[in-house]
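quick one before i forget lol
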Amino acid sequence: MWSLFTSLRLSNHWLSSALSCVVVCFPAVSDSKEPLIVTYRSAESVNDKRYDYDLAVLQLALEKTIDEYGEFRLEPSGPMNYARAIHLVEKNQRANFFIKLSYEQSLPQTMNFVGFPIDLGIVDYRVCFISPTAKAQLPEKLELSDIKALRHGQGRGWADVGILRANGFEVFENSSYEGLFLMVANNRVDLFCRGANELYQEYQSHASLSGIEIDQQFVLYYPLPRFFYTHKANTLALERVSKGLKKAFEDGSIQTLWRQAYGASLDFAALEARQLFPLTNPNLQQLESEYLKYFYQPDAFKR
């Protein structure tokens, strides 16, 4: 009797262990997938709307790829300047952290980019905030030498700094985005040049600042493709965003978003009425020209 009881107890113990193994070794299959967490860059100030369009484009690209890759969740990075954002991407310290950057060969090797120009090239056309003193001094008929004689303000570490200096301009850097508007309004620099797509919103946000004015005479042009960058280890996110952006371009949805975001600014900038001064961008020597097929070009400046 004892041996039978022992035998049954051992059998039950074996069965229980075997069932446990089945549960552990072969976990239940679930149809649910964890959403992909993607971090986006937060604004630096309440007046800073530069990243609204970037966020909308990133969301559009992720939405276009839900069927293939599943759901996603966007999370803000928290306010930070340019240098801090690059550092966090370089060190991969946020989940799939994407930031928009102008292409430069000198960017950290730990970073990779999606080769689709997010702004469709409109940021190449630079219209300037001008100081009251400089506005009064500029002649009606401009030469490039007249603009080179002026002092330019730009953000510390921005690609524009190297481009302008390579073309013979004097550039003063400021790590504060808001500080650049104060510099030009207070005659500490003569020009603060912005993408034609950025101009209208920034003018509205700073219209109450005494001394802030827009130059009405000229537009600088230099190719400045801006791409989504993230850490190169985020291969799945890079692949997904790339596919999503191209899908959005093919079906026209990114062009619609672009017009909604930038149409008013392009009307305000009145590019066709300005004198165009082309410059070179030495940063693009090793960049393949595939991105150019997505670029916008105003009718008056088509070559």
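fyi The longest strand covers residues 97-102.
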